[in-house]
């Protein structure tokens, strides 16, 4: 059975109501908009995972090389996530009207509203994660 359903009672107990964790590391909780607490319409705009064991293997046991490679990968990940956000600045919500005009993303935009605005101020997130800490050490 899908883990979100199995954990329904615990999620309600801890948070006060059910929020969909999207089956991954992203757990978008309640969002306040105009004094109202919203549980739907949250979005994760992008997810990147750093593979720490791969960086360690590429560093070949050299700790300084590991930290240098990690810094480079972090910068690349940041650039990728920021590019994802920047691309939304040019999205016309009339192209996918079901998402932005008919409520699938939790909003009903008018013809002259900006898509990018609905993702600001905490309504959406971008996620940078990592795997393999134990294996890296």
From TrEMBL:
Question: Which E.C. number(s) belong to this protein?
Answer: 1.17.4.2
Q: What would be one Pfam family of this protein?
A: NRDD
Sequence intervals crossing the membrane: none
GO molecular function (one): ribonucleoside-triphosphate reductase (thioredoxin) activity
Example GO biological process term? 2'-deoxyribonucleotide biosynthetic process
Q: Which domain of life is it from?
A: Bacteria
This protein's record includes keyword Oxidoreductase: yes
Q: What is this protein called?
A: Anaerobic ribonucleoside triphosphate reductase
Lineage at the top is:
Bacteria, Pseudomonadati, Pseudomonadota, Gammaproteobacteria, Enterobacterales
Q: Which gene encodes it?
A: nrdD_2
């Amino acid at each position: 059975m899908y883990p979100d359903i199995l954990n329904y009672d615990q999620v309600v107990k801890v948070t006060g109501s059910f929020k969909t964790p999207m089956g991954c590391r992203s757990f978008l909780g309640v969002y306040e908009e105009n004094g109202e607490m919203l549980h739907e319409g949250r979005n994760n705009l992008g997810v990147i995972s750093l593979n720490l064991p791969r960086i360690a293997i590429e560093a070949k046991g050299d700790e300084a090389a590991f930290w240098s490679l990690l810094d480079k990968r972090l910068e690349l990940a940041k650039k990728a996530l920021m590019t994802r956000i920047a691309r939304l600045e040019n999205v016309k919500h009339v192209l996918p009207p079901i998402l932005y005009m008919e409520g699938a993303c939790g909003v009903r935009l008018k013809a002259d509203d900006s898509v990018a605005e609905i993702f600001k101020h905490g309504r959406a997130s971008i996620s940078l994660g990592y795997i393999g800490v134990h294996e890296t050490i």
